[in-house]
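Quick check before the chapter quiz. The format below is the same one you will see on the exam, so make sure you can read both the input and the output lines.
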Amino acid sequence: MRRKLKRAATRSSVSRTRQPAPHRHLEANTSLWTETLFAAEILMLHAAPIYYGFGARRGDASGVILIPGFLGTDFYLMELHAWLCRINYQPYFSGIGVNAECPNLLIQRHLNQTLDRALTETGRKVHLIGHSLGGIIARSIAAQRPNDVASVITLASPIRGTVANRAVLRAADAVRLRILEEHGTGVLPSCYTGSCTCNFLNSLRRKIPRSMIETAIYTRHDGVVDWRYCMTLNPDVDVEVPGTHIGLAFNATAYAVVAERLARTHLPA
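Here is the expected output.
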């Protein structure tokens, strides 16, 4: 009897986990203090051969747009930017400033222009790499412009629902109030929530085209968001690495995965 109850509870838990929930805005059972370990990931990255390009699959000089996470700027993605140059890609910073704005406006006012420039300068489809909230924005762009995007890679991005640490949710609420005050009727009343009906969220509900290579890199030690929501639940897409939420932007194992996935668009498997 106990075994039957245990199996039933397991099936129920799996069923709940697998439900896509782009509208959810719940508190995750995470510990932000673990994120201090990201400093070790930076040190380990600089000691890893992959950081200097050794053992990494080489690129084809195509463009890669990097999108920072919530409250982040392009500055902290400089390591990733420089590394992509070393393995023969042409990286582009997002140009969005601080990621504390309506995502729909960020795409319309900045990221579409960055994508157009990358297309023009490289003559090839562009790759998108987004960290945390930046990954969610990247997926929305990929759904909106499937003919212009070769691949989309998310790093610790809660792509199936906003389930984050309480402190992060409070910060998001503060950002939402500022957006409403600054833009007024220029944004929808439900802006920066999962119930918004803007093009940004509508695009997230579309499936990524099969022609586009999709990768979701996550860590079970994420101290910011619930790692289970950073997966697509497709084993061909999801890749687990050891590390922290912040640290995935500086993680040697994640860099190796990025190099391999980007190369799939132009090299035989």
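If your answer matched, good. The chain has one domain: 31-263.
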